[in-house]
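Reopening this one. Same input as before:
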Amino acid sequence: MFLIRHANRLHRTFFAVIAVSMCVICHGGLGYAQTEPAVPDDAVARSIVEKADQVRFPASAYEVGVGITTTHADGSAEFRKFKVLAKGNDNAIVMVTEPASEQGQILLMKGRDLWVFLPSVSQPVRLALGQRLTGQVANGDIARANFAGDYNPKLLRSETISGEPMHVLELTAVDRGITYHRVMYWVRQANGWPYKAEFYSLSDRLLKTCFYQNYEKMAGRVRPTRLLMQDALRQGEESVLEYAGMRLRDLPDKIFTKDYLKRLE
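Same output, byte for byte:
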């Protein structure tokens, strides 16, 4: 009898220990789940925008040719070609190569400051990033492409377009010097490729819609080589930007100065 009672006592003690251990494990697990920090929504949104920026353009210095064809509502069209030298998000030079009558015109961007050099004018002239360059293309569209640095992003929702899941983000300009006050931005969830952007004015009026198309490998990764910009204010007007010959380059800082502009070819 003594052995039976002793065995029963050990049996009860064993299960008591197991029960206490399970409580400790469960409470510890709950505590861990409660204290593990969640990733803030704005951090997730910023990561999406940063990755999309890297898809659009290299983070290092590069050169690329840009042809812009603008079609007007009456069916007439005009073509301009540019050579862009860029380094990081804050330094860019845009040189007109076609038409021949405009050769020698150069845009210089330093941070959010923009100047134009005209062969007939001795000193560079200050411009606004939002000022129209040609067709539906603003100066900032071609000289500055830093969505992550210029806007505060917010992830609004997910959408499916043509069977592809998309992140839908709202980008609000950090200050009034930015090209657009607000941008609605669609980015593919599968690979971080931009799909579409809607650009809004300070009065929150839709100005134009841009579609990122023809993804091909340039400067080490797949990027959009064609941008279709449709004017929201004038039906039937659009500009197509085609990027070609993108290559990484070693560009010294001295190039991106007003004093150096006249020496560029």
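So the earlier flakiness isn't reproducible anymore. For the record, The longest helix spans residues 2-35.
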